[in-house]
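Attaching the record inline, Q. Sequence:
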Amino acid sequence: MRNTFLILSFIIGLTFTYNLAYATQYESKTNGGDWTDPTTWNPVGIPNCGDTVTIVAGYTVKVTSNIDYTGCAQPMFIEIYGTLEFIGGGSKLKLPSGSGVEIHAGGSIKSSGSGGGSSKTLEIGGATVWKASDGNLSGPAGFGSTLPIELISFEAVFNEDQVDLYWSTASESNSSHFIIERSKDGSYWDELIRVDAAGNSTTIKDYYEFDSEPMYGKSFYRLVQYDYNGDYEIFNAVPVENLEGGLVAFDIFPNPTTQDNINLSFKGFEGKEFLVVLRDISGKEYYSKVEIVNTDSEIIAYSPDVTLPKGVYLVTASSQNELYSQKIIIQ
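Structure, as predicted:
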């Protein structure tokens, strides 16, 4: 029997886009960088039509050229907690019609370097919503459309004989219900669980569900949100490994352990780059590091440079559209 619970926020992750097709959710890495540099983003790549972009608090993403998305059929959304900086004359960010930009408290849009007036602009659907002569802009502020739902995170974690499913929303508008779907290959999906949504909310809502009969080996879970008017959005799928047998793609050992004896096992990921993040169950981040897997089966010693209080933690390893999660107990 499945029950739905409100829980404490587990992971602070990405904010996602509202459209009817699959899109990518990009988050700036903690060192920031140029908008057009794939390594600026997690997952690695350059934001495209229909995507949602989150600029992390305390870090800067730079626009140094004319970036034009006006030919896109799907809107884009930018959530700014850090800084979006336009550098030099001719630096422009042109978003498609229906897009939105939200500058949160502590976030900002700024101009630097040569050029002023309208030589640096932020545009939505061909209309200029900010230009260098307007001066630096601090949040809270916004332009264009807003997201009917802001999804903080969606996590699927194998836990003994079941898969725990966690998701959190920062806000909901006209939100009817969620569907959790499951797939063996990531292409063909079956409805697994239906959960009532909050309707309209401006506060964080946390949800928990579980799959009591997970598939053997690797499978995928994804979240679909429906509005009262029938519109829906599909969020990124996350893979899960059934640890009861078969090849385990990502694992941690020993477990329980101490903070000076944490080993990460990667199988089948030769040449891939993973962002490994360690958080406690309240969502507080203690450590993050990019790891490069050099062989088909590799063990990497994971050494947080901070003191970890005893307790339960969640380690996530993400690479492009793949995300793996494991619980670990620090003694």
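Residues 1-22 have pLDDT under 50 and may be disordered. The two ends are 33 Å apart (CA to CA).

More tomorrow.
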